[in-house]
Automatic annotation (TrEMBL), chain A:
One of its GO terms (molecular function) is branched-chain amino acid transmembrane transporter activity. This is Amino acid/amide ABC transporter membrane protein 2, HAAT family. It comes from Insolitispirillum peregrinum. It is found in: Cell membrane. It comes from the Bacteria. The chain crosses the membrane at residues 27-44, 50-69, 76-94, 114-133, 140-158, 197-215, 245-265, 285-311, 323-346. Keywords: Cell membrane, Membrane, Transmembrane, Transmembrane helix.
UniProtKB/TrEMBL annotation, chain B:
This is Amino acid/amide ABC transporter ATP-binding protein 1, HAAT family. InterPro entries: AAA+_ATPase, ABC_AA/LPS_Transport, ABC_transporter-like_ATP-bd, BCA_ABC_TP_C, P-loop_NTPase. SUPFAM superfamilies: P-loop containing nucleoside triphosphate hydrolases. One of its GO terms (molecular function) is ATP hydrolysis activity. Keywords: ATP-binding, Nucleotide-binding, Transport. Gene3D superfamilies: P-loop containing nucleotide triphosphate hydrolases. GO terms for cellular component: plasma membrane. Residues 26-274 form the ABC transporter domain. Pfam families: ABC_tran (PF00005), BCA_ABC_TP_C (PF12399).
Length: 369, 275
């Protein structure tokens, strides 16, 4: 009843091309941002912040990254975990790099955290381009198998070459304590979850906005063209090599930042095994369940996969049911698997599509058509 | 943005009328193309002149589509040369041909199914868009200005092809005739000098064919686009083309005006199976 676009006329192409052309959507979006930035830090406790919201945001970045590559550009990849590991280790090397010593200054100096994250993204983008090369020759499942090489090689590299862990005996890297502004610690054991959450949230908002913007510009269209029909794309003048490698670069940039955020803002210390093939599959499930080729879907998928297990674990207790822990953990797996199958049968295009259908229905409600 | 004059009222098109046929713009000489033992094309030569509508006809398997694929760089013939604007064209990729002003449509619709009609047409202008990755991520200044300038041009094509109502519809949901029209729009968006149309009217009913003929002639009149088209409907071919090239089993049988071709004994033999 209230979700109507009647009377909202577009007088310019700029107005027609905005991200949320319907006013109610815009209001909803700004409300959501306000809630996420202002209300959530006040309401949520530390447990919620550190174990639920932060991993959800980190995985959102990763699924945004994979959605760029698989959902928009149509290049199937199973190397997400490897690229996240690259991001984490690049961030570790960058943050522990003593610039002062390198350039002969008297005092030790370190890169600012913002540059560490950006640098980790850029390094991962370069690695992504390298492993994206096979995509020029092979497609589909064969490409997925080729990206597995990235997954295994990168993890092996970080495991075997002690330089990446600064010669730590355990092979574990720990985020060094760093400040975002003087007095505001965002990494290391002293960092407060709320600070981390706000920093991560800003990162997520910027990255999501960037991805959305690209998808309405020529690069985004070139990716979708390659995805939908690569031969036709080439015949209207899109260079396949450049376009595919750009997708690998940007996707890996996002995955790299996600990996860095995982190590620095979520767990605090990490070993290569944390980015195993399981992570790659998890992110792939997120975008399949959330919706391929949808920014919204990346978030919905990440929410589904990271939040649902928490709900399933805590749900029975909140309802006052007293079920033994071992049974709960078994039930969790079963319900989770059943739900994935259920959603894929009901809507193979993911939660984002369900959301879209709901909105279309809402526009007409309460009339049938 | 240097958009060519495009009358805003499509229905009142063809103000300039047919442009006189000019010099040779594209010339294929002694082209032979083989796939293993199969000879798709044998020693074929013909010229395409500026502003003309050239039809390539022939029975199924005559090598018509292969010929178009050679022209836009999709196939590389084993023998023969292609001259584009007087210069010999060396081995090139299809996207280079597109950048050199050769656009095409396909026999089986090759639209980007997940995108809207508008986005499909906008993709046709991708080669002209220059904003950087960062510009696009921020969607400020340059990227937005560029998007809007190209959007204006695409809207004129949409207007011209009379598909305003479906501009935001995903093309996968459109009926066949409209998809063909969107595909033409995508090719036109690139402002090509030469437009290759592979069976633009296949599977259409009479009205849709009439519409398509009108669009082809209007494009030819208004933009002076040179057209090379493959078509099976002889009525259409004889009506709209300036010149006809006839292929049969990969060989050229005839080349001339529709009238000349119609009375050519070889052509009659190939089509009617006589002696």
């Amino acid at each position: 009843m209230f979700y109507r676009e009647a009377g909202q006329f577009k007088a310019s192409y700029a107005a027609d091309q905005q991200i949320f052309p319907i006013r109610q959507d815009r209001i909803a979006y700004y409300t959501l941002l306000a809630v996420a930035f202002a209300a959530v830090p006040m309401v949520a406790n530390e447990y919620w912040m550190a174990t639920i919201l932060i991993p959800f945001l980190v995985m959102s970045i990763a699924s945004l990254g994979l959605n760029i590559l698989t959902g928009y550009a149509g290049q199937l990849s199973l190397g997400t975990g490897g690229f996240m590991a690259t991001g984490a280790f690049a961030a570790y090397k960058l943050s522990t790099w003593d610039i002062g010593a390198t350039f002969g200054l008297a005092e030790p100096m370190h890169l600012h955290m913002v540059f560490v994250f950006l640098g980790a993204g850029v390094i991962t983008a370069a690695v992504g381009v390298l492993f994206g090369m096979p995509s020029l020759r092979i497609k589909g499942f064969y490409l997925a198998v080729a990206t597995l090489a990235a997954q295994f090689f990168l993890l092996w590299l970080f495991n075997k070459v002690p330089w990446f862990t600064n010669y730590s005996t355990s092979g574990v890297i720990s985020a060094p304590p760093r400040e975002l502004f003087p007095g505001v610690v965002i990494t290391g054991p002293m960092a407060h979850p709320v600070t981390k959450y706000l920093f991560l949230l800003s990162l997520v908002v910027l990255l999501a906005l960037g991805a959305k913007n690209i998808m309405r510009c020529h690069l985004g269209r070139a990716w979708m063209a390659i995805r939908d029909m690569d031969i036709a794309a080439e015949i209207i003048g899109i260079r396949p090599m450049r376009t595919k490698l750009a997708a690998f670069a940007l996707s890996s940039f996002y995955c790299g930042i996600a990996g860095a955020a995982w190590a620095f803002l979520y767990t605090g210390s990490v070993e290569p095994l944390a980015f195993s093939i399981e992570v790659s599959f998890k992110v792939l499930f997120m975008i399949i369940i959330g919706g391929l080729g949808s920014i919204m879907g990346s978030f919905l998928g990440a929410a589904f996969i990271t939040l649902l297990p928490v709900l399933l674990t805590n749900g029975p207790r909140l309802l006052g049911l007293n079920i033994p822990v071992d049974i709960i953990s078994h039930l969790e797996f079963m319900i989770f698997g059943a739900l994935i199958i259920f959603f894929l049968i009901v809507e193979p295009h993911g939660l984002a599509r369900l959301w879209q259908i709901a909105k279309e229905k809402l526009r007409l409600w309460p009339f049938p058509y | 943005m240097s958009a060519p004059p495009l009358s805003s009222t499509a229905s009142a098109a063809a103000p300039s009328g047919k442009r006189p046929i000019g010099d040779v713009i594209l010339s294929v000489q002694n082209i032979s193309l083989r796939f293993g033992g199969v000879r798709a094309l044998t020693n074929i030569s013909f010229d395409v002149r500026q502003h003309e509508v050239l039809a390539i006809i022939g029975p199924n398997g005559a090598g018509k589509s292969s010929m178009l694929n050679v022209i836009n760089g999709f196939y590389h013939p084993q023998e023969g040369k292609v001259f584009h604007k007087g210069k010999e064209r060396l081995k090139m990729k299809p996207h280079d041909a597109a950048r050199a002003g050769i656009a095409r449509t396909f026999q089986n619709i090759a639209l980007f199914k997940g995108m809207s009609a508008l986005d499909n047409i906008m993709t046709g202008r991708n080669t002209m868009m220059k904003s950087s990755l960062l510009d696009q991520m921020l969607y400020w200044g340059r990227a937005q200005k560029e998007e809007i300038a190209h959007r204006e041009f695409c809207e004129r094509i949409i207007d011209f092809l009379e598909i305003e109502a479906i501009r935001k519809t995903p093309v996968g949901r459109l009926p066949y005739g409209l998809q063909k029209r969107v595909e033409l729009g995508r090719a036109l968006a690139a402002q090509p000098e030469i437009l290759l149309l592979d069976e633009p009217m296949a599977g259409m009913n009479v009205e849709e064919k009439e519409d398509m003929c009108r669009f082809i002639l209007d494009v030819n009149d208004e933009f002076g686009t040179t057209m090379v088209l493959i078509e099976h409907d002889m009525g259409v071919v004889m009506d709209i083309s300036d010149r006809v090239v006839v292929l049969d089993y990969g060989r050229k049988l005839a080349d001339g005006t529709p009238h000349e071709v119609r009375s050519n004994p070889d052509v009659i033999a190939a089509y009617l199976g006589g002696h």
